[in-house]
Task: inverse folding
């Protein structure tokens, strides 16, 4: 089902809501006070910049952005070129190597090429203070990302949601299983990956579900831009 709704429409609607004004104001004040907030302001909404609403094929839900220097750039699990893949992404690559024939583990963790193919790499909280995991939880970002999921749920069909860990699975409770596909596994973090993330085969399953709808599968090999 096609939709004329865009992320610009969704953002414009939410930006008029008091909760969202408060969230953005809090983050702006923290930056103004000299705190280091990740990702940089220009990257906070990157998930929506690279994957328009009508193009979304797969959604991968993360929690909050990486809180180390030069890592977060607005796409869940992804890091900037030149930055080593963090432990969760290392496990994602391990699973891909096990699941997708011919997948070679890349020497980088930059997932923008997934986003450009229709994989919405969405964190449930879009900012974090340097070195302080979950420091921007419960400020209002969760409400915003609930609205994002609701917009996809109501305006699209056949999206494959990959929900890793209890946080993402709880977030995905609103998804209509009659209209969309939901695949669940433990989180790829080293604490839980061995409990069933490794071996989940979500990437090949997602491609099979896309192909059944006549859609092109995702090329899961992350590619650096030509100029990198």
Result:
């Amino acid at each position: 089902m096609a939709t004329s709704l865009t992320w610009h429409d969704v953002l414009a609607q939410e930006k008029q809501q008091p909760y969202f004004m408060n969230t953005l104001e809090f983050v702006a004040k923290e930056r103004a006070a000299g705190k280091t907030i990740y990702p940089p302001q220009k990257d906070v909404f990157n998930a929506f910049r690279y994957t328009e609403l009508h193009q979304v094929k797969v959604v991968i839900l993360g929690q909050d952005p990486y809180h180390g220097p030069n890592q977060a750039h607005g796409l869940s699990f992804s890091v900037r070129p030149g930055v080593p893949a963090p432990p969760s992404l290392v496990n994602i690559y391990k699973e891909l190597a096990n699941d997708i024939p011919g997948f070679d583990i890349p020497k980088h963790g930059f997932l923008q090429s997934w986003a450009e193919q229709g994989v919405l790499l969405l964190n449930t909280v879009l900012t974090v203070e340097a070195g302080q995991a979950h420091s921007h939880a419960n400020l209002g970002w969760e409400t915003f990302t609930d609205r994002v999921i609701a917009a996809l749920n109501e305006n699209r069909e056949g999206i494959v949601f990959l929900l890793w860990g209890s946080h993402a699975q709880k977030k995905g409770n609103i998804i209509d299983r009659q209209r969309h596909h939901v695949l669940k596994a433990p989180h790829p973090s080293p604490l839980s990956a061995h409990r069933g993330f490794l071996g989940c085969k979500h990437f090949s399953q997602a491609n099979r579900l896309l192909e059944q709808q006549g859609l092109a599968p995702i090329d899961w090999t992350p590619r650096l831009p030509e100029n990198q």
User: Anything to note?
Assistant: The CA atoms of residues 18 and 28 lie 15 Å apart.
